[in-house]
Amino acid sequence: MATVSRTSAAPVRSEGATRWWVRLLDPSERTLAVLLLMPAALLLALIIVYPVCRLIWTSFFNLSLTSGLPASFVGLENYALMLDDPVFWETTWNTVLITLITVPGALVVGLALALMANLPFRRKWPVRLSLLIPWALPLAFAGLIFAWFFHSEYGVVNDVLRRLGFEGVIWFNSANWAFAAICLTIIWKTSSFMALIILAGLQTIPRSLYEAASVDGAGRVRQFFEITLPLLKPAIVVALIFRTITALQTFDIPFTMTRGGPGTSTATLAMYIHQNTVDFLDLGYGSALAVVMFALSMCVTVVYLRMIRARG
To answer: For 102, what's the count of Cα atoms within 13 Å in the CB-facing half-sphere?
Structure first.
């Protein structure tokens, strides 16, 4: 009886194995989608999900490499320390203020540059190449260049002011002037990125719409507000998402121009995270600061995505 049962069960196993191979070699659309997305999902989990989870977990520990003590779980103590940390509030406010100034500024300048680059030049490549140069420059390099531009003694900006009859400004000894110099530098550096995205959106607008509007008697200003801007909204929102997130993570330009000075008046949250983790080796508190910055970035992203969904 045992031999009969093994013999009768063999075809069942063979049929099951055959079905498994058939499903693998000729999958359904749903199975094929899962198989194709699985490598990307594993890669995202490896380079995004795991580091973020590890960062959040570390923020619950008192982990200082200079203390010589083992890591100890402290719960929300690192987050509670932020409430009484004036440098945290100052750097967070500086970061928000840089975002509020440079993102609209870069959008306005980038829109103007994109409209200029979209004009019917006989040779468009020099104009479009000029848009790529600021974007291609490393952030730290741009900060060093503009630190020389705004130098109080031999800077280009003060030289121009003196030639025009004005007194030179000691830019980096004043918190307000230093902050203004940083914002101008960031706008110059990032406006080309905005211009490239907006220019791509301009290329998708059919010329026939402008021709029809001209026939109806619409001028250039009316065409801009009734045709160009409405059709550019998706490109503008995408540009704002990327630019706002990077603005919240501003580090290179203020670091190379002022090192956060005078005092901490131009320091950003990313610079304060760098100071705690790299200089002070306080990984627990630095991780908590990084979690706050990550949360700010995610909140901004959610707001923009809801704007896109509402308009869609």
So the answer is: 31
Both structure tokens of 3? 């031999």
One-letter amino acid at 216 equals D
Spatial CB neighbours of 129, under 8 Å, sequence gap ≥ 6: none
SS3 track for 120-167? CCCCCHHHHHHHHHHHHCCHHHHHHHHHHHCCCCCCHHHHHHHHCCCC
Q: pLDDT tens digit string along 109-141?
A: 999 999 888 887 777 777 777 888 888 889 999
Judge contact between 149 and 156, C-beta under 8 A. yes
DSSP 33-74: HHHHHHHHHHHHIIIIIHHHHHHHHHTTEE-BTTT-PPPEE-
Q: Which two tokens stand for residue 200?
A: 């791509």
Q: Provide the sign of the torsion angle of the four alpha carbons 111, 186, 92, 246, taken in this order.
A: positive
Give the residue among 103, 274, 270, 248 at the shortest CA–CA distance from 183. Answer: 103
Q: Hey, what amino acid is at 169?
A: V
Tell me, what's the pLDDT at 184?
Answer: 95
Q: Return the residue matching tokens 């380079």.
A: 47
Q: 71-95, pLDDT tens digit by residue?
A: 899 999 999 999 999 999 999 999 9
Cα–Cα dist 308/25, whole Å: 39
